[in-house]
Amino acid sequence: MKPQFEQRLATLRKRLLESGQDALLIFSPDNLRYLFNYSGEAAYGIVTQTGLYLITDYRFLEQAQHECVNEQIATEVICRDRDRQTLAQAIAAVLSDERALHIMYEAEHISVAMWQSIAAGLPELLFTPALAMLEAQRKIKDEWEVEQIRQAAAIADQALAILLPQLKLGVSEREMALELDYQMQRLGSEGVSFTTILGFGARSALPHCIPSARPLQQGDLIVIDFGAVVNGYRSDMTRSFVAGKADARQQAMFDTVHAAQSAALASLHAGLPASEADAAAGAILNASEFASYAGKGLGHGLGIKLHEQPFMGPHCHEVLQANYVVTVEPGIYIPGYGGLRLEDDVRITPQAYECLTHAAKIFEVEI
Amino acid sequence: MKPQFEQRLATLRKRLLESGQDALLIFSPDNLRYLFNYSGEAAYGIVTQTGLYLITDYRFLEQAQHECVNEQIATEVICRDRDRQTLAQAIAAVLSDERALHIMYEAEHISVAMWQSIAAGLPELLFTPALAMLEAQRKIKDEWEVEQIRQAAAIADQALAILLPQLKLGVSEREMALELDYQMQRLGSEGVSFTTILGFGARSALPHCIPSARPLQQGDLIVIDFGAVVNGYRSDMTRSFVAGKADARQQAMFDTVHAAQSAALASLHAGLPASEADAAAGAILNASEFASYAGKGLGHGLGIKLHEQPFMGPHCHEVLQANYVVTVEPGIYIPGYGGLRLEDDVRITPQAYECLTHAAKIFEVEI
After folding, report:
1. Are residues B131 and B33 in the same domain?
2. Domain boundary residue among B138, B165, B192?
3. Residues B329-340, buried b or exposed e (16+ Cβ, 10 A)?
4. Tell me, what's the pLDDT at A83?
5. Do B208 and A59 touch (CB under 8 A)?
6. Which chain B residues are Cβ-neighbours of A83 within 8 angstroms?
7. Which domain holds residue B339?
8. Cα–Cα distance between B146 and A343 in angstroms, integer?
9. N or C: which end of chain B has fewer CB within 10 A?
10. What are B52-63's pLDDT values in tens digits?
11. Among partner residues A113, A178, A191, which is closest to B129 by beta-carbon distance?
């Protein structure tokens, strides 16, 4: 199983042709990774119907040649001397050789200042902004991509299993987050998918809780939201616990979120409007005593980027397709009291879904 | 000792006034941290002569109120409902209340696509791009900022001291990088300053070596480039070692880089053109047998961002000023053989410099 670079490129070229465009200028590091297998910095990509170019400089030349020129991908790597050639000049040289005139550029991934300096150096070309062109393509994952997320999710599952017995009275959020991050990397994760969210007690209600020195106390709600990275692809999972025995309100929160997530998962299949998956969870949350504390939005696409298309909320016009990989993460957040969220990563299949995260949804943990 | 938010704001307002501008739109997360004490995401700042506004949404409201509204800083935090109000509308509401017409915006920190959507919603305003406006101001650090970098550097010093005895025959680059990252965070670092560079043998010549499974062997050159983060401020230090006894060539490399760094450090003082500090190191590198393998550029500013103004290279027109904090990092990189770099963080003083990194520059380590 290999990344399908040829197919990715063919799809993009077809769309360029259909739009009457000669070339696409790529500025997004995520899209350079997707299309060129390039994981470094300070590089710019150009795709035409016959050519594939990566402009970088001496600092990343060796890495670019290693990553972008091999049996799977045949990029022409251009090493620019930044003291002698502007980026506009380097781009102009490629486009002139290619006789390209109608140029799309990733307007979402380049700053106004940088684009002004490039465009000023290329007055004879006709530019059109490309909006979410590769992002739309990236929504459907190939088998290799799904496998990377599956492996990242498996690492997260294992790391959580190592962490759980360490949740003891008095440990701090920060200690536990550090231990989780350490274990994921020891198990092969390339860094972490994002800054681990780990909150005890009332702090579990903060959607982006940054781990603090707060010690774990008996009866605390505990939220842990984290992920691993494999070959640039991310996982993203949340589990929620209670330290010791749950009281009636905590148990009702857990049961509500669990039922909401189960309903959303059960609804999933290719062809389903994403807003209906959101509504399946929403129906249960909104019928509960916690309706006014329900989180907004059901989940998001997942891949090279942590939050990518499609975004699944009530106002989303997306229809789910086979091999989308998305999170399903309903939650309840009661300010000053605590929060509870369950999040899994799933691949959409023609009839249902495949769950990529497998950690058990236990609630009570002995501390 | 506290961050000097009032003074930062006064300096910016004075410059706005001098340029005849009524407001600055701030899009850079680093600049929001510098001016508003805000460390979250999804926020936009507006500064006028009398007002200070942060526009965010419900996800970051609590964090923004906590960080940006206190005895040191009195921001008006605006919680935008993204389903009902565009960013342009939220900005328009503030600027209209403030009767602001001439608006600067951070053109280096907003995408073409996003700026087009904002500007289209504000047709009556007159926009001017602000280029490196706050970045220029951030070059001079206040005492509190220097203290954060000093603490980050101290954490890095301690973590390296813990790591060195673990450099043993057969350990991998990845294991050692993970251990270093773990120790820094255990000692209080907020994550790591950047992805730790740690290379053995020929891989030490890669300027951005990503730690691999390569095991440590007798006689290997070892390069370790890493840093800690305290209150958002970063350190950045490199030490180079040889596993066991250095041979003549390795010792000559070390002596050359050490002499080049010493010469550059000895030249430092407020009023010195940065290119002359670069030349002080360059004179020694270029007179050595390793001239053709010398790295380009002496160092860079350091603060909220890892690489920030001033950049110290041969073509740099910067004159060093008191309380600039910069790296001094000459190196030799021999492809296929190995590299060697020494890097310290220093604060420029009126007469000389204060070194913030203190790890000993030993070369031979027993493995």
Report:
1. yes
2. B138
3. bbbbbbeebbbb
4. 87
5. yes
6. 315
7. 143-365
8. 41
9. N
10. 999 999 889 989
11. A113
